[in-house]
Amino acid sequence: MKKKLSLLLALCLLAVPLTACQSNDADTSQSDSDTTQSDTLVIATTSDVSSLDPSRMASGAETYASSCVYDTLTWLPLGAEEPLMRIAESYTVSEDGLSYTFTLRDDVLFHDGSALTVDDVLYSIELFRSSAALASYSYSIAGCEAPDDSTVVVTFSAPDPAFFENFNNCFILSKAAHEAAGGDFGTQPVGSGPYQVVSHNPGDRLVLSAFPDYYRGEASIKNCEIKVIPDTFTIATALETGEVDYSVAVSFDHIETLEQSGKVTCVVEDGTGVTFAWLNHTIAPYDDVLVRKAISYAIDKQMCNDVIYDGRATVLTTPLPSVAVEGPEGVEGYSYDPEKARELLAEAGYPNGEGLRPLTIQTYEAAADYAEVIQANLTEIGITSEIEIAEINAFISDAFAGNVDLFVLDVGLGSNPASWMSMFTTGGQMNFAHYSNTRVDELYAEAVANPDRDQRQELYSEIFRIVIDEDAAMIPILGGCSCHVFSNELEIGDALEACYSTALPYDLSFR
């Protein structure tokens, strides 16, 4: 069985796939940590780190590495209501929710020794807004300005309950260095994060060292290597032999063996990703809700879970991860029921699938296992299908263009329902299924403008009852699930408490 990689998608491109973890602690120096046998942490990833320019990130590994090199104004831990302060020392929100005012710290230095200024923050926010890869995170920001040297005001066209979670992806970089390096900044990054770049060999490894002047205190682990190892079996072996200290790029097939080795600690956690099967609403017969409901009942989600995650993931009813805040209530969804699926097909005029043209299931290599299970499920109710594996960017382009029947992909947009609405609203940036319902659009506009969390949850619940129970707009299958494998030489502490997917070196230490 293949390792199922969770990919976080944004408009037209792969976007921020492995939003990292940040310590819940306030500014606390780690420089007084005990001496350990090793001062180099080796982290394995299957994805390359081609660029460290935050505006050009195209893989989860690049986002993870950027989380080491850069810092953000604030950080919202998973499930939290209030953000932690980082480069900003405080913030206020206007009564109408359309402007956020941040007061900056005065002790933040970049890796080249220059002081971080308000101009760097404005420049970085504008890059965040203009990046196509980050469009699903920055869409609500209308502008930003600096009334003085220590204040930044971010304005919005409408209130955005998911702003702070999305803002986790706005890395602050040096304006002067970015402008001077131009297209080479991705290999010559200048940030203010806990680690600075020592060497960068794309396709091989990124070598980092602790930044001694980091404003939150120098990292306990002084050196870090992010090593590219394309094969998950090789990663598992390297973890067992001690060549690698930490990875989330481990197949669930290998967990039992790793646990039995006694050399590592395996921690399985739900993440913020969701795997969907999407039906194109612009192509007959999938514009027929009866056909969509039939296929929804036909898919055996637990079989997907058993095949891909060894049964450890969460089977979903709604299009939100299990860790979602303000999660919807009262959504029935579709349990595996092939007999019900056949009844609905017959009601739609396709008894036992007769009269239906062969269906094409399109996906990318990382989700091929899902496609194989779905193909077997569809055969059971009389629907003939074929699987087409495409390169990820070509696959996404085809989905946006409406050239696909049924497609399987992972999406990870955080834990706030507002972040996911672009998949369901008319013309939404991630509305791959080309779904449209004016009532859903109206409820969404009402929800994001409502400051009351309980009332928003009621509105989101109504939205998802329409999207799933009434319209069968898409088929949520499983919530993302990651296995963190740590060397027993590492002290994990609370490194995973604020985790969206991957623990940061700054939050780890050697025993």
Automatic annotation (TrEMBL):
<comment type="similarity">
    <text>Belongs to the bacterial solute-binding protein 5 family.</text>
</comment>
<dbReference type="InterPro" id="IPR030678">
    <property type="entry name" value="Peptide/Ni-bd"/>
</dbReference>
<dbReference type="GO" id="GO:1904680">
    <property type="term" value="F:peptide transmembrane transporter activity"/>
</dbReference>
<keyword id="KW-0813">Transport</keyword>
<dbReference type="GO" id="GO:0043190">
    <property type="term" value="C:ATP-binding cassette (ABC) transporter complex"/>
</dbReference>
<dbReference type="GO" id="GO:0042597">
    <property type="term" value="C:periplasmic space"/>
</dbReference>
<feature type="signal peptide">
    <location>
        <begin position="1"/>
        <end position="20"/>
    </location>
</feature>
<dbReference type="InterPro" id="IPR000914">
    <property type="entry name" value="SBP_5_dom"/>
</dbReference>
<dbReference type="InterPro" id="IPR039424">
    <property type="entry name" value="SBP_5"/>
</dbReference>
<feature type="domain" description="Solute-binding protein family 5">
    <location>
        <begin position="86"/>
        <end position="429"/>
    </location>
</feature>
<dbReference type="Pfam" id="PF00496">
    <property type="entry name" value="SBP_bac_5"/>
</dbReference>
<dbReference type="GO" id="GO:0015833">
    <property type="term" value="P:peptide transport"/>
</dbReference>
<protein>
    <submittedName>
        <fullName>ABC transporter substrate-binding protein</fullName>
    </submittedName>
</protein>
<keyword id="KW-0732">Signal</keyword>
